[in-house]
Design brief:
Strand content: 5-15%
Number of helices: 25
Radius of gyration: 36 Å
Largest sheet: 5 strands, mixed
Keywords: ATP-binding, Kinase, Membrane, Nucleotide-binding, Transferase, Transmembrane, Transmembrane helix, Two-component regulatory system
Shape: extended
Helix content: 55-70%
Organism: Lysinibacillus parviboronicapiens
Number of domains: 6
Distance between the termini: 41 Å
Protein name: Two-component system sensor histidine kinase ComP
Number of strands: 16
Structural class: alpha+beta
Pfam family, one: HATPase_c
EC number: 2.7.13.3
Length: 731
């Protein structure tokens, strides 16, 4: 852990613990008094329910607080609000003196909002920060997000200390409210650069001047007491401006790019601030009573740690998008049902329910309904599979149908399987599949319904068209199922056509040449020999040299008159190391984790091995990549393997960076080191170019693009981009 990281965590712990201790020492009561007549007369209590339970009424005279006269405390504090106390004594209108001892448990709202929730949020945020710090993907983006999380946590944790008038608590919550959004906008700028999206605003470094403005406000409080009312307005105003500024950046950028990641960031990290902004900050700035107290609106900040875990751990955006769409659907249903039920309750209890209680009822019903929808989904899937099966919905039948048709070996068999699916699913034989040569005014997969006849174009070439004709009216759901299935049939036909043409070409060449296709044999032989050459060079430079060294050691030992046990054990240890190296070569030839656990796990294992062997600092950032062509997973693994091997053998670097980025239909691989570098032309002429040439040939074989930039003593920078066949490469 670096000194800066250590100091940040220590500062976070000290300030958070201090704020919690201040909140725990004395309960918060928030009693407003009027001293116009020389005596502190109670006007209002922050917790009305507690005041009623303790028989504290408007007009009662406040005598003592924690054993001191109330008048003295007013003179000392120059305030008409008593924020916290352990013991009170009041004088009723009839002259009776009433003593009250106060505990946190007497005021459950204060206990949970000022102590329990802040404590949980404080610990949870610290745990998430440690988790993010230990992840191997640590970079500036993650560091900024971690700092943003910690400042949000400190702001919420300091609510109790600030409410009690503690100066440190007030300053911590003031700085953190502004500084957390500055950090968030700074993170956005770096994240946009990472996504190769143009930053639409000025550089975020200028926002770090805002805490200086707050410092001036706090200093002015010591000079002029009027700034005690101005500073909170300044803080809340800056908070509102920064939230709206961040939202404007996210919304405009999402409209321009339609990036799912930007939308996810907005939902996960900005929306928790909106209740605090709309229900507390805006009314406070406009000098209206807050719709909800700050303690309750700030509870939405608890969503932020879970959002962090979700964003960092779950890297599969398709799964994220699916979960979000389902969550939006269930939220809409739960919200409207909660609103209707609450309206029904309020009709009968309109005089007994406050606005805060109605809001709590809406929230409770909403959460219960939302949880019920998820529970129902799991129960339906377990006990009523017909809802999810092909018999219950035509669209859900697609997977089974496509799986069956995908086993066809030729076009005739494919059409036969397609005929079977139509007969089984649509329950009709009133259809024909015709091969015609004349023009059809349809595109592939397009359906045209006319005169109770459905026409669908399955396949078309310059010479022939395959058309499906159904003499029956189909329902919308049946048409959707048929259209989607026809698209798969069309793609299968393209693939089968290519395979059939290739087989015919090979058969023709075999018949005409009466030999075993020498061009194919030569190609395969060259590939095999090249791989043998690479393996031979690797074995020669490592294990063979080690074996020769051990042989010389044994010769010396054999000529000795005495057997040295320590020497024999050393040779045995070296033999075991050589065996380990040989095992690693076998794993490199056929990485077992790649087929068993996938590319992501295989690359992580490879990086762990390199970290053990290498004498440089390796920074990696590996995104999940998905390909239709499964061979590309092995290509990615080999490219990463070769780049890291070259770094170990030739780079002489102290820092190496490797970044695998998923792009549409492919990937980009970025390699950078600060090593000795080289002249590219001289490298290609030397024996050290074997690894680089291997990388270039692998990239070229998959129609990819590679750029290599290097100069002596300036390191090496390699960028590789490969997309699956059918996609254009922008060099």
């Amino acid at each position: 852990m670096s000194k800066l990281t250590c100091s940040i965590f220590i500062t976070y712990l000290l300030l958070g613990i201090y704020a919690l201790v201040i909140a725990i020492q004395t309960p918060f009561i928030g009693i407003l008094v009027d001293t116009a007549n020389g005596q502190p007369v109670i006007v209002k209590s922050y917790y009305t329910d507690w005041a009623q339970q303790q028989n504290i009424e408007k007009g009662d005279i406040l005598l003592t607080i924690d054993g001191q006269l109330a008048e003295e405390k007013i003179m000392e504090g120059k305030s008409h609000i008593f924020r916290s106390a352990k013991e009170l004594s009041i004088k009723k209108a009839n002259g009776v003196i009433h003593s009250i001892k106060i505990k946190h448990t007497d005021i459950p709202e204060e206990l949970f909002v000022h102590i329990v929730f802040p404590l949980l949020y404080f610990l949870l945020s610290f745990g998430v920060a440690i988790f993010l710090w230990k992840r191997p993907k640590e970079n500036q983006i993650t560091n900024l997000l971690t700092l943003f999380l910690l400042t949000c946590s400190l702001a919420y944790t300091s609510i109790g200390a600030s409410s009690r008038g503690d100066i440190i608590g007030k300053m911590v919550i003031g700085y953190c409210i502004v500084f957390c959004l500055v950090l968030f906008i700074h993170f956005l700028q770096h994240y946009f650069y990472y996504l190769h999206i143009k930053w639409p605003s000025f550089h975020s470094k200028w926002l770090y001047l805002l805490p200086i403005l707050l410092t001036c406000c706090y200093l002015m409080e010591f000079v002029d007491s009027r700034f005690n009312q101005i500073t909170p307005i300044v803080i809340l105003g800056l908070f509102g401006i920064l939230v709206l500024y961040a939202l404007a950046i996210l919304i405009t950028s999402y409209i321009r790019t339609q990036s799912v990641k930007i939308r996810l960031i907005a939902i996960a990290l900005i929306i928790p601030f909106l209740p605090f902004l709309l229900l507390f900050v805006v009314p406070e700035i406009l000098h209206y009573p807050p719709i909800l107290p700050a303690e309750f609106t700030a509870l939405f900040l608890l969503f932020i740690p879970f959002s962090f875990i979700f964003i960092q751990v779950n890297e599969r955006l398709f799964d994220i998008e699916y979960q979000l769409s389902r969550f939006r659907y269930y939220c809409a249903l739960a919200f409207f049902s909660a609103l209707i039920l609450t309206l029904g309750i309020s009709i009968f209890l309109v005089e007994q329910l406050s606005f805060t209680l109605l809001t709590a009822i809406v929230a409770l019903i909403f959460i219960v309904n939302l949880a019920s929808f998820y529970v129902k989904e799991q129960l339906d899937f377990k006990h009523r599979k017909v809802i999810f099966s092909s018999n219950g919905d035509y669209v859900h039948n697609l997977y089974a149908a496509v799986n069956r048709m995908g086993k066809a070996k030729n076009q005739q068999e494919l059409l036969a399987r397609f005929t079977y699916e139509i007969t089984e699913k649509l329950g009709t034989t009133a259809f024909t599949i015709e091969t015609i040569s004349q023009h059809v005014p349809l595109s592939r997969g397009e359906i045209n319904t006319r005169n109770q006849t459905t026409q669908l174009l399955l396949y078309d070439t310059a010479d022939e068209k395959i058309v499906l004709l159904i003499s029956q009216t189909l329902q919308k759901e049946e048409l959707l199922w048929l259209e989607l299935l026809a698209l798969y049939v069309s793609m299968f036909m393209d693939s089968l056509k290519l395979i059939e043409d290739l087989v015919l070409d090979i058969q023709h060449m075999k018949v005409t040449n009466e030999t075993q296709l020498p061009w194919l044999d030569k190609l395969l032989w060259n590939i095999i020999e090249k791989e043998k050459s690479i393996l031979a060079q690797e074995l020669h430079d490592t294990i063979l040299q080690e074996q020769l060294h051990l042989a010389r050691e044994l010769d010396v030992l054999a000529g000795s008159s005495t057997i040295q046990g320590e020497k024999v054990r050393a040779i045995r240890e070296q033999l075991l190391n050589a065996t380990k190296d040989l095992r690693e070569y076998c794993e490199n030839l056929s990485p077992p984790l790649l087929d068993t656990f996938g590319l992501q796990i295989a690359l992580k294992k490879l990086v762990q091995k390199v970290n053990i062997r290498a004498n440089f600092l390796l920074n990696t950032q590996i995104e999940r990549v998905h390909f239709q062509d499964l061979s590309l997973h092995l290509v990615v693994y080999r490219l990463v393997q070769e780049l890291l091997n070259n770094a170990i053998k030739h780079a002489e670097a102290t820092e190496v960076s490797l970044r695998l980025v998923a792009i549409e239909h492919g990937f980009e691989l970025h390699y950078d080191d600060n090593g000795i570098g080289c002249d590219i032309e001289d490298l290609m002429k030397s024996s050290a170019s074997m690894g680089i040439n291997g990388i270039r040939e692998r990239v070229r074989a998959f129609n990819g693009h590679i750029s290599i930039i290097s100069k002596p003593n300036e390191g090496m920078h390699i960028n590789i981009k490969i997309q699956e066949e059918g996609e254009k490469i922008n060099d």
